[in-house]
Amino acid sequence: MTAESNSEKLSPADIAALRPDTRLVHGGILRSPYGETAEAMYLTQGYVYDSAEQAEARFKGEDPGFIYTRYSNPTVSMFETRLALLEGAEVARATASGMAAVTAALLCQLKAGDHVVAARALFGSCRYVVEELLPRFGVASTLVDGTDLASWQAAVRPETKVFFLESPTNPTLEIIDIAGVAAISKAAGAKLIVDNVFATPMLQSPLTLGADIVVYSATKHIDGQGRCLAGAVLCSQQFLTDHLQTFLRQTGPSVSPFNAWVMLKGLETLPLRIERSQASAANLADRLAVAAKITKVIYPFRDDHPQSALARKQMLGGGTLVTFEVEGGKAGAFRFLNALRIARISNNLGDAKSLVTHPATTTHQRFTPDARAEMGITDGMVRLSVGLEHVEDLAEDLAGALKAV
Q1: Is there a smaller number of Cβ atoms within 10 Å at the N or the C end of the chain?
Q2: Which residues are bridge partners to 383 per DSSP?
Q3: Does domain 271-402 sit in CATH 3.90.1150.10?
């Protein structure tokens, strides 16, 4: 079943020419003969064939269609197509989680003897994959100061195959020059993978800046309501054919059709949610910057951010995350967190509800104090993911909690 066979008035080419907000509502729809308004959820493991000859042709790739939901599924395909349209990617493949996307994007193209260069400011699980998992299989890695292009260049070896970074970084909101790193990567003959979770596809387009592969934890802003896990890898058709497709089929990090349907519906409201949360985040960052008991505020579009000019060059907005430091180290941060009434303590982000976490004891707790210090993570640091609540209620909640510090 294709959109054209169900008399859709918008062809794929028509939809690709539309603005992002419209693509996120109409892109990738595969309607059944029943003509449903909401996208159908195909909860099936397998598919039947009209004949043994058709089954053979499907497995040979000579007949288009679905074989097994671990490989592909109509609901999952709709989510992949819609996300690819938004990102401007040739193809997208959904995975069971964001970390499944990161791991698949790396492992599908690496072998023993290869080398990876990665920014040191990474989400804890990403650093585990780069620092500990890859070396077990003979893949060396080098961590660099992501904001220093000279460090990327100096780390290149003849066997370097992949560059990996996130920007803005978690939780310190460093901004890395994606175009600058991409130029070094291409000169080295390596592929650049960018984790674009914090910026979201609404605010940053790594592929247009020179990245080869973009990964997402769709669990975050794309779902946006704290319901399901999912991830995505966006890349060229050639990379999919040469590396990713076989890896995904044989190792099985597939997303469930239900989760893909939730993400598909989340994409419809993504522009509205990002616009609202980002406006509140910028407002709160300015208020926190002049609040007592706050020693530092980090927000990419504030002029006091060390890479604010770069952030404005490669992003359309400062994002929905604000990071700040509270007086009194861990004890002060804990008093602040425990006094909040609206914003709740959780290590998730990108939710309709405002969420706060203490990175040193949650997302980055496994690192030594020296490693955290190298990444800029202090004991008084708090990461705030701003939700959809009224900004004045959030401001009052933050101000009230600061009184407890």
Answers
A1: N
A2: 323, 357
A3: yes
